[in-house]
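User: When convenient, might I ask for sequence and structure tokens for a protein?

AI:
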Amino acid sequence: MTEKVVVVGSGFAGLTAGALLQKEGYEVTLLEAAAEWGGCAGKFRRKNFTFPVGATLGMGFEENGLHRKINDSLSIHSDVLPLETVMDVRIGDRVFPYFTERSRFLSMWEKEEPVDALRIMNFFNEVWRIGQSLRKHMLHYPVLPPKSIQELQALLRGFSPMSVTLIPYLGRTLGFLVKKHRLEECHSFIHFINGVLMDSMQTTADKCELMMGATALDIYHHGAFYVRGGLFRVAEDLVSSIKENGGIAKKPREVVSIQKKDHWVISDHRGNEYKADHVVMNVPLSNIKTLLDEKTYREIQPSLKKKEDPTKQWGTFTTYLAIKDEAVPREMNLFHQVMVNPKLEPSGANHFFMSLSEKGDHLRASAGFRTMTVSTHINLNEWQTQEQYEQQSKVILNSVTSKLKQLMPGIDDDHFMYEITGGPRAWERFVKRQGGGVGGFPQTKENALWNAVQHRTKVDGLWLCGDNIFPGAGSIGATSSGVHVARSISGKKLV
């Protein structure tokens, strides 16, 4: 008899697990609570404009990249534009272009910080060596710690003599390398890497686990991409793959309970029941307790329960804009990371990431217009009351608007067609993330690698995936967790 799998949630992790298992011959039913596919990589529409929910770059679409390998295995083609300049990193009044090509990147630092350029070069060369070794492992979607022969084999496939050189870095933060290369007082460099790490690892260099941080600082040089339409296009392609291979995908279908009997019984908000041999939960840990029956919840591993509090993650405040193309300078890059005041922390109104639609991308805006998504990290504890919510929203929106006027001289109210904002409550309401936590756990030593939450729950047939699960946040991290689940269920390599 063909085994049945119900996937709860259509983020990249759940979609990947579902698509791979459906192709392998399992009967997959995908249930999404929201009105759109993709979770944090989803979209919403306002008339002729489509807004990606998150302001994200496309990663892993290069030759042999993690998304590319999955796309190839599922016969999916993503329409992506390789970026020579990943983004402009704006620190106060200074602009640091983040070039994909390493030689140009180092030349930029030689120009901007000639006194510290050699130490910066040595820092990045060491980071890239670490990244090169780790990448050989990542290409095989390893699990740490490995719990099966299959997972051990995946880890060993990436092993090389270079792997041994990683041992001295275990148990350290990226701050170790900063101190080693005597760069603590090069403030532009510190702000630069901290901004990149906040967006990808949810923490700064002094706290970021060293190997995860090295991966984040290495990955852009393998390829960064603008995904035409937005990352939601990739999510929709994965849904299509499930359907074309005979699976079922339904939205909006909010799962309200998951019960373990002689099989799994999953109930949605419309009163429908689905029976399954396996349940794949692509939901934040904060959602799990409300979904599982009491007996099953008691059986899951205690480490999961310790991280249920959504405030252990960052939240995000996002601004969505539709603007007339005539207001956008011709040479303006599509992605910008902004630190308004270098003397303050990289969060809230002081630090945000901006994603602009490509000119002519009519999947996002009609002719003559562009859309922009601007997101910033926020401390959820500071957004608990209505007064806090309104005050913080106003401060961030004013900061974003002020920076836009600097980037686009001459822009005025007539150039704006839409100005929509969304804080933690919007993420809770529309993306169904209880408590509004977004982006996974900060990749500190306490949360990364061996200390990350695993995809196994210790309950037979119940699996976890998503940005809360090893290896961590971002589309690549979430996707990898989906691969781990699909491999554990099938017992096959798959990708």
In short: The longest strand covers residues 315-324. The two ends are 24 Å apart (CA to CA).
